[in-house]
């Protein structure tokens, strides 16, 4: 994803962020971004583990299967 940016582009982005937000606000923004990523990773891991647990159980009939059952009964 960020392979085409390169070192000069990354330095330019950091300098622009430093100019816009200032040296006092930049660490706070970095911490908030890190916390957000951590929460996002935890949430996605929770969703994936819930899906894995659900696959082992017998799922209810899907809409297609219900329609087939109704048409077969008539």
What would a concise description of this structure say?
This protein has 74 residues and is an all-alpha fold. 84% of the residues lie in helices and 0% in strands.
Separate helix tally: 2
Name the overall outline. elongated
- Quote the average pLDDT: 77
Q: Find the structural class using helix and strand composition.
A: mainly alpha
Low-confidence stretches: none
Largest sheet: none
Percent of residues in beta strands: under 5%
User: What distance lies between the first and last C-alpha atoms, to the nearest angstrom?
Assistant: 55 Å
Fraction of residues in helices? over 70%
Order of helices and strands: HH
Radius of gyration: 24 Å
Number of strands: 0
For this entry, give a set of tags.
84% helix; mainly alpha; single chain; 74 residues
Descriptive overview:
It contains 2 helices and no strands. With 74 residues, the chain is an all-alpha fold.
Question: Mind sketching the topology for me?
Answer:
Blueprint: H1 6-56, H2 63-73
């Amino acid at each position: 994803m960020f392979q085409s940016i390169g070192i000069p582009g990354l330095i330019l982005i950091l300098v622009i962020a430093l100019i816009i937000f200032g040296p006092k606000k930049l660490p706070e923004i970095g911490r908030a971004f890190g916390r957000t990523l951590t929460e996002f990773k935890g949430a996605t891991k929770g969703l994936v583990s819930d899906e894995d647990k659900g696959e082992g159980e017998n799922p209810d009939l899907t809409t297609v299967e219900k329609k087939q059952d109704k048409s077969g009964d008539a």
